[in-house]
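Discussion board: Methods & Data

I've been asked by a reviewer to show the raw model output for two of the constructs in my manuscript, not just the figures. I'm not sure how much to include, so I'm pasting the format here to get opinions. Each protein appears as its amino acid sequence followed by a line of discrete structure tokens. Is this the kind of thing reviewers expect to see in a supplement, or should I convert it first? Here is construct A:
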Amino acid sequence: MLSFSNFITEPVGNNLTNSPDDIRYTKNNLNALGFIQDDVNEEILTRDLDQGIKDFQEQYNLRRDGLLFPRGETEESVISALARISEEPPPQRGGFLPDIQKKRKDPLLILKETLEKRRGRKTNPKTTGDTRLS
């Protein structure tokens, strides 16, 4: 079972000051999710890690910039993905920031609801015989 003990403390990505602990933490997480095959004990940003971050962002419909920020949407999504595969609830952080996952809706669900609303709209039956919009 995966355990959530750390969060990144500084941004991770190309052209950033990358903390060795944050690099290791990010590599471990992306390796557990199957996005990299890199040596998780190596404390430097590699091409594999950079590509793994971008691939993760692309798969989860996030901005594909290859950057992780503390409490950013990519880090929060990594934590949520790890929680799903480990069946362990994601950790709660103190602070004033809202829990992103509680507020975020699945984009496909939003699209489905929007289409259902549009299909279900009624027109004035006195002006047309059709009660649905085309």
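Construct B, same format:
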Amino acid sequence: METIEQFFERYGRALSEGDLAGIAACYMVPGLVLGSGASIPISDLAEVERAFADAAEQYRSQGLTRARAEVVTSYSLSSEVWLAEVNWGYLSTAGESLHQEHYHYLLRASPDEKLRIQVVIAHSPPR
């Protein structure tokens, strides 16, 4: 089975390349995105592609060209479900960190033994 680190390398590569199909392939439906004041159900992977098309354009306009994941902690909830806390650094072409985000992910192993995001929770990093 794919490891947590391998999954976030794959997801980060798809984010960095603006590979919308690759990003969507990192999600599982039904899914859920939770954030401050928002709860967004995901019922179709095309919804993921549309959401990231807008985000990718916004990041590029800010000079962000690479997404790097730092897995803070992860643990298994069962043989196929994992919880991961991740800090994302968004880097310029020069490798300078321009933006940071913090998430928790509930990942589930799919039949092909790849991990997929089923729930993502966006929040501010702990102080």
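Answer (T.O., handling editor elsewhere):
This is acceptable in a supplement if you add a one-line summary per construct. For B, something like: The chain has one domain: 4-123.
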